[in-house]
Predict the 3D structure of the following.
Amino acid sequence: MRQVLNRLALTSALFAVACGGTIAQSAGKPAIGVDSCAAARPDFGGAATAADRALFTYDANAPLNLKKAVESTTNGVEVSAISFDSPDGGRVTGLLFDPVARSGTRPGIVLMHGAQGGARGMAGQGQGLAAHGAVVIAMDAPFARRGGQWRQFTPEDRAGQIQLMKDLHRAVDVLRARPNVDAARIAYLGFSYGGTMGVQFVGIERRLKAAVLVVADGGLVSHETGPGDVLLAGLPCATRVAWLRAMTPIEPIRFIPHASPTPLLLQNGRTDTLVPAADAKVLHNAAPAPKTIRWYDAGHGLNQQALVDRHEWLHGQIGLDLLRPPG
């Protein structure tokens, strides 16, 4: 079994750079209860209820106990290692990119990595965004802080996703507490797994001005129950049942209907084999207006045009500087 899991794990490795159903189910996929031993995609039911969303409440008045250590300053951007208290215990780690040479208040961005990486893997993105005027927090997900696999098909997957939502709330708190951040101009930008977790976050965080979801799908259950996904099917029946029972109620696609009025930009590739076009369309259909959908003739990594498009979209939404021509 270990050899099978190792081999199959390779099929989802690129999910790091992202992780579909209407909220109910994809066309052609049978609806099943979460207690079924089948590995087919379950019926996610309706949009998340108030009780579902209450899972992610936290004490906004608790001290952040922010710690910051400057690592470098390049081209007017100060890069610091940061940490702050997680509402569910331990310390959230990450990087802060601050355009210290800029005057006045700046837009803020919470930047979220993919399934195989961490905050430091987003340093290029963070540096580039800060060079164009944003104060950026790149945060480590709980799985990145503990080490090991990004999903384990154990109760820790549910606990980690709930903790991540609370940690993202706290990242917004950190930005809002900074004197050089305009609290009315904070955006979320997530790639792959980070995009998929953003599908949930935009449905519970009311302080975002805008959000960009790059190569996202409906959630971990959606990702593991597509037509070509066999890793879940290879696990023991009891493991599948327990995991689906735990994860289906917190599937991100159930939360995105609550995103309005936050404007959304959803970017996907037509030839993405990790997030098939059919799954991306299910997410697009579930997302409420206002939304902008962009397709690219590209795979999971998208292309340069996608970078230009999201930068220009963020310029319009939060006032990020326009891209400067090379040289």
About this structure: Residues 155-177 form the longest helix (23 residues). The mean pLDDT is 88. Residues 2-318 form a domain with the Rossmann fold fold (CATH 3.40.50.1820). Strands lie at 67-74, 77-85, 91-98, 106-112, 135-139, 181-191, 210-214, 264-269, 291-296.
